Automatic annotation (TrEMBL):
It comes from Sphaerotilus sulfidivorans. Transmembrane segments: none annotated. This is oxoglutarate dehydrogenase (succinyl-transferring). Residues 565-762 form the Transketolase-like pyrimidine-binding domain. NCBIfam families: 2oxo_dh_E1 (TIGR00239), PRK09404.1 (NF006914), PRK12270.1 (NF008907). Gene3D superfamilies: 3.40.50.12470, 3.40.50.970, Multifunctional 2-oxoglutarate metabolism enzyme, C-terminal domain (3.40.50.11610), TPP helical domain (1.10.287.1150). E1 component of the 2-oxoglutarate dehydrogenase (OGDH) complex which catalyzes the decarboxylation of 2-oxoglutarate, the first step in the conversion of 2-oxoglutarate to succinyl-CoA and CO(2).
Length: 919
């Protein structure tokens, strides 16, 4: 190339981009136009030849070729160990597409926009070879969808400078082979010793264990002190033994059914969690493998929440000390929506963990689906991560060195940019979905290939032998690992058996406690007034909305005892008293800062602010000197991932009041898998104690099917083994005491609160100041009518929730002086003693009626009728008043709602009919 053109191309590298960035990628059209103009000028001034202009055009085409390989090269990468498909036709990766011919291959072009060489130029042949080695080898990198120029250049430099090839020492290669041997050895041992038992083998994906080992060791060198791992069952037993160092003999005991069973239910071995401390060059690293149910990806937000709690405990705001690692299956990653929700949390203030390392064990098969047309609608299983511009490294599982290199690069990227990164290990599944399957029934072609495959370990051992690292090296390692298995010894060296971090949580104070244990939740009057004054004193510099100012002015009066305390103030004072006492509070949910029904106003927005990230004031962060943190987060429009995150947070932090609030109680439907598989059953399956609070707005206000019911019946159905607390408080003092009870009492059980909507502003639901400075949460609230004569009562109406106030109004209208109304504020565990004592107050009552807003097949009726019957006296009859059974939670027409509401209230006072249970 003539010197004048080379100088021009070199200068182009320093010209700012059109968008003002420092990107080295230059738009082609302006460059071509500038060439044309320069050529014209040269023709006029220097009579430049047409040949010069042709060379210039070729240089632009070379730049286009480079850009194409950076964007599309992964499509030609050697990724499939089974080599089942031909390389696709991609014209943009062919030199002919750019009118470059064989005669151009030895022409020298500018190479200053690449990192292949320190020289300024290369021949076209050298450029093409470098591009194919870098982007089309056993690592296929997808990086060009990233919009940040600095990150793109970072990847280009890392990959192109080594051409995506590692340069490992002999000792490093032996260490990789040892990990492959361990991975294969465990599976072969179990396959021989426990024939036909399910273990979800990793065979075909052994390089994953080499990646995990590299990740742990390099993370430790970079200052990471904790790694929390979430994964489904494929390869889980291998990770337990070969990464976390679980004793093989303990795993064998689980296969032999001789392991201790000290849990009410327990779980299968490939769902179990584990933790250990591993020595690295950078110091001890604590590894935690999260417990996981069969839902393949639901553990992911749980891990993120657990990591965030650990980071908060350490003050690790950058995510430098605690690392989340998520392991996925290829089909589940894109197929299960919780991943989209979890990814969307990645960069948000309330949920960011400083970047997650994702590893995909890509078996190229979806359970029993081998036809690519049925696997997904995207090119790659990883395409979902492009929504957050996460880079992806596809890597051939049969090249363990490439897998280890990809792991090193991924960790370096995460620690540098604090963003998510994906390693897609393309491998295969040697056996069926489980060891009882016959995969060739549905994948005959694939399993012919797999049957002929010698195994990744064998291929790598032969490669090292060919490199002169020992002809018997592979066999010697196999024998050594088999001996370790026979002896049941550790396979991870060294596991630190006596190390304990100062950040570890002591859960012992919360074990063995009973729900009936007392809790002093009253707040002394002087403390109440002090906190209330701090809570309601808003700086003059904050320009409050008139409506919000009215709320805080009223709260100030409530704090002084001048007017009764409403629901929002009761909540606020519970939070204020807890943070003042050293208990952090974390409240999240859609629009929970304001409150869906605008009752909370925990965040005051300056009405004259000019920037979106300035001008907010959170009173609960300023109630006491040295107070604990109060965090309120308006979450993304997600239920499943956010609730999973908060469960994970609470599972790692028992001393924080962690609350998730649904915008409407019905929205918990979208998170039902978290409720079923973690919240309700986590303790009986895994022994995981958790104090998460769910606040679910619930109430029949004529707003239609999806804005009425939080599906109380579902929680009642899940209630057993004292696994959770289900409450429906009906006054401001009750919400105050139940929230304080959750932390003051050393009992950590999920607390499900069915919170009201209309009662938030109902004056009848307010409470006098005295109810906060004495007393506690009352599981049952008896008759409140002072002049009711107990001996004259013929009927006791039992209810829960908002309908109580409707019943009181109806009784007043009917002047029914022989009817008592009892509220059950805690539905589970059912307060038999308190409820029984209330019924005993009315010895002459013959009728007991359970009244509810919900349809008969929903709500609490079918669950509480047995509890009520147990506490009834001889001769008493139990009846039902409420809406008839329905397939829908509520009707959608206002007039029909009103008719039903009137009918159920009439029924509560009418003669018993229909189903009647007699004592």
């Amino acid at each position: 190339m003539p010197d004048n053109w080379r100088d021009y191309f070199d200068a182009l590298q320093h010209v700012p981009a059109v968008d003002g960035s420092d990107s080295r990628d230059v738009a082609h059209a302006p460059v071509i136009e500038s060439f044309a103009q320069r050529a014209k000028a040269n023709a006029f001034a220097h009579k430049a030849s047409e040949a010069d202009l042709a060379v210039a055009r070729k240089q632009v085409h070379v730049q286009s070729l480079i850009a194409a390989y950076r964007s599309l090269g992964s499509r030609w990468a050697d990724l499939d160990p089974l080599k089942r498909t031909e390389r696709p036709k991609i014209p943009e990766l062919e030199t002919a597409f750019y009118d470059l011919t064989e005669s151009d291959m030895d022409i020298t072009f500018s190479a200053t926009n690449t990192y292949f060489t320190k020289a300024d130029s290369m021949t076209l042949r050298e450029i093409v070879q470098a591009l194919r080695e870098t982007y089309c080898s056993t690592i296929g990198a997808e990086i060009m969808h990233i919009t940040e120029p600095t990150e793109k250049r970072w990847w280009q430099e890392r990959l192109e400078s080594i051409r995506s090839k590692p340069s490992f020492s002999a000792e490093k290669k032996k260490a990789i082979l040892e990990r492959l041997t361990a991975a294969e050895g465990l599976e072969r041992f179990l396959h021989t010793k426990y024939v036909g038992q399910k273990r979800f083998s990793l065979e075909g994906g052994e390089s994953f264990i080499a990646a995990m080992d590299e990740l742990v060791q390099k993370a430790g060198e970079k200052g990471v002190q904790e790694i929390v791992i979430g994964m489904a069952h494929r390869g889980r037993l291998n990770v337990l033994v070969n990464t976390l160092g679980k004793m093989p003999k303990d795993l064998f005991a689980e296969f032999d059914h001789t392991a201790p069973e000290d849990l009410p239910a327990g779980d299968v071995k490939y769902h179990q969690g584990f933790s250990s401390d591993i020595s690295t060059a950078g110091g001890p690293v604590h590894l935690s493998l999260a417990f996981n149910p069969s839902h393949l990806e639901i553990v992911n937000p749980v891990v993120e929440g657990s990591v965030r709690a650990r980071q908060d405990r350490r003050g690790d705001t950058a995510g430098a000390q605690v690392l989340p690692v998520l392991v996925h299956g290829d089909s589940a990653f894109g197929g299960q929506g919780v991943n989209q929700e979890t990814l969307m949390l990645a960069a948000t203030r309330g949920y960011s963990t400083g970047g997650t390392v994702h590893l995909i064990i890509n078996n190229q098969i979806g359970f029993t689906t081998s036809d690519p047309r049925d696997l997904r609608s995207t090119l790659y299983c990883t395409d979902i991560v492009k929504m957050i511009e996460a880079p992806v490294l596809h890597v051939n599982g049969d090249d363990p060195e490439a897998v280890v290199l990809a792991t090193q690069l991924a960790l370096e990227y995460r620690m540098t940019f604090r963003k998510d990164i994906v390693i897609d290990i393309v491998c295969f599944r040697k056996l069926g979905h489980n060891e009882q399957d016959t995969p060739s029934l549905t994948q005959p072609l694939m399993y012919k290939k797999i049957g002929a495959h010698p195994g990744t370990r064998k291929l790598y051992a032969d490669k090292l032998a060919a490199q002169g690292l020992g002809a018997t090296l592979g066999d010697d390692m196999v024998k050594a690992y088999r001996a370790a298995m026979d002896a049941g010894r550790h396979t991870v060296d060294p596991v630190l058996s006596n190390y304990k971090s100062k950040y570890a949580v002591d859960w012992s104070p919360f074990l063995g406690k009973k729900w009936t244990d007392a809790a002093d939740t009253a707040l002394p009057l002087t403390e109440w007034k002090r906190l209330a004054e701090r809570l309601t004193t808003i700086p003059a510099s904050v320009n409050m909305h008139p409506l919000v100012k009215k709320v805080y002015d009223d709260r100030a009066a409530m704090g002084r005892g001048e007017i009764n305390v409403d629901w929002g103030m009761g909540e606020h004072m519970a939070f204020a008293s807890l943070v003042a006492a050293g208990y952090p509070v974390r409240l999240s949910g859609e629009d929970c800062g304001r409150g869906t029904f605008t009752h909370r106003h925990a965040v005051v927005h300056d009405q004259k602010r000019e920037k979106w990230d300035e001008g907010t004031y959170i009173p609960l962060q300023h109630v006491a000197d040295g107070q604990a943190t109060f965090t309120v987060i308006d979450s993304i429009l997600s239920e499943e991932a956010v609730l999973g995150f908060e469960y994970g947070y609470a599972s790692a932090e028992p001393n924080t009041l962690t609350i998730w609030e649904a915008q409407f109680g019905d929205f918990a439907n979208g998170a039902q898998v978290v409720i079923d598989q973690f919240i309700a059953s986590g303790e009986v399956k895994w022994g995981r104690v958790n104090g998460l609070v769910l606040m679910l707005p619930h109430g029949y206000e004529g707003q239609g099917p999806e804005h009425s019911s939080a599906r109380l019946e579902r929680f009642m159905q899940l209630a057993a083994d004292t696994n959770m607390q289900i409450v429906q408080p009906t006054s401001a003092s009750q919400i105050f005491h139940v929230l304080r009870r959750q932390m003051v009492r050393n009992l950590r059980k999920p607390l499900i609160i069915f919170t009201p909507k209309s009662l938030l502003r109902n004056k009848d639901a307010t409470s006098p100041l005295a109810d906060f400075t004495k007393g506690d949460f009352r599981t049952v609230l008896g008759e409140q009518k002072a002049d009711l004569v107990a001996e004259k009562v013929k009927r006791v109406i039992v209810c829960s929730g908002k309908v109580y106030y409707d019943l009181v109004k109806k009784r007043d209208e009917k002047k029914a002086s022989d009817v008592a109304i009892v509220r059950v504020e805690q539905l589970y565990p059912f307060p038999h003693r308190a409820f029984g004592n209330e019924l005993k107050k009315y010895p002459n009552a013959t009728d007991i009626v359970w009244c509810q807003d919900e349809p008969q097949n929903q709500g609490a009726w079918f669950f509480v009728q047995h509890y009520i019957h147990e506490n009834m006296q001889e001769g008493q009859k139990l009846g039902y008043a409420g809406r008839p059974a329905s397939a829908s939670p509520a009707v959608g027409y206002a007039h029909l709602h009103q008719d039903q509401q009137k009918a159920l209230l009439d029924q509560a006072f009418a003669k018993l009919k229909g189903f009647v249970l007699t004592k």
